[in-house]
Amino acid sequence: MASVAKPTIFDVVDGAWVLDNCRLCQKPIRFGWHPRPGEPHSSWASQLLFRRLCRDCVIGAAAAEVGPQSATVLALRRRYKRIESVWHFAGLGDPDEGESPLLRAKQLQVRRSLGVGRETPTLWLVRWHPRRQHKGPNDPYLELFQITGWLPVASMSAVPRDAFSGYQRFGLAEREVDGQLQVYATVQLAINACFPPAIPTEIHWRWDPWQPNDETEPIIHRFGYCSNENLALLAHHAGRLYYKAGRTGRTRDETKRYPPGTEQDFLRDVKEVITQRERDGITFTTVEMLADAMAMSRSALYEMFKQVPEAHDLYREHKRRKPRR
Fold it and tell me: Are 263 and 232 in the same domain?
């Protein structure tokens, strides 16, 4: 009996993508920023403001609050310009006669791949760190540029983790709308891996509308603008965070990040996570805490401890030490 092909996330959303409107000017929000608590230049307003207003209205509100020539307003202009450049590159802009034929072709292909008409969904930027990772000024992070679409199911329980084929860079969640639960997907169309000491050099992944169901190879953005040491650290962190960022569409094998021959990578990552927490005066009192910090299941962590007993010894020694005050 022939197997039935699984649908892709684009098949299931089937054009039901979200284009938000600004609560102030009522115009469509083409792209926006969802700041996390503590992100620079976001403390002057509530996070809700950034999610409800378009770029011009956010910058206008900031200018009224802290001054039009303030560092905050200038930083916001730079940030939104960065998001806009990704929005254009992703092909979400409006096809018009002023654009190059190649870009117009890409914009039309994006609409075909997403199953939408002239209007494309809002592209949101979210900064991502692994849970419980230290979030200091020099710690690595991912910038996720994502769109949101609704799934025609009533709850997450109706969606198996391995329900989809094809492109897997998306997350699933549910939200109550008018008293009923609805399931939605946040699909990542672009990812920037950032390591502050290496800036402006970054590692980028981009969704390809010509091959919408495949993941693309990474590219180094502004190669040669940082030291070799910081470039190597950027590459290490980029790979580590990219796979920790989890592809919800498929069942994740937590041990695949450390295949045979990479046991030293596991030992290094355990040392790194423990060192960061001890620097903050924190002790992992349970294996669950360490597994959570490393974005692994407890069973996967125990399996790696069997393969790398030095890492298990390192964790035991960490538990015996008192955190620094």
Answer: no
233 & 283 share domain: no
Q: Residues 57-74, buried b or exposed e (16+ Cβ, 10 A)? A: bbbbbbeeebeeeeebbe
pLDDT at 64: 95
**Interval 285-320: pLDDT, tens:** 888 778 766 766 677 788 889 889 999 999 999 988
Task: Give tens-digit pLDDT for 50-87.
Answer: 999 999 999 999 999 999 999 999 999 999 999 999 99
Residue 13: other Cβ atoms inside 10 A = 25
Query: Is 148 a domain residue?
Result: yes
In a domain, residue 55? The reply is no
304 and 194 within one domain: no
Question: Using CA atoms, how far apart are residues 120 and 93, in angstroms rounded to an integer?
Answer: 8
Longest dimension (CA), the chain: 68
Whether the pLDDT of residue 323 is over 70: the answer is no
β-pair type (170-177, 180-194): antiparallel
CB 201 within 8 A of CB 234: yes
> What span, in angstroms and rounded, lies between the C-alpha atoms of 209 and 90?
8
Mean pLDDT of 102-107: 88
140 within some domain: yes
Asked if residue 210 and residue 123 are part of one domain, the reply reads yes
Q: Do residues 100 and 125 both lie within one domain?
A: yes
Q: Tell me which residue range forms the domain holding 275.
A: 254-320
Q: What is the DSSP letter of 17?
A: B
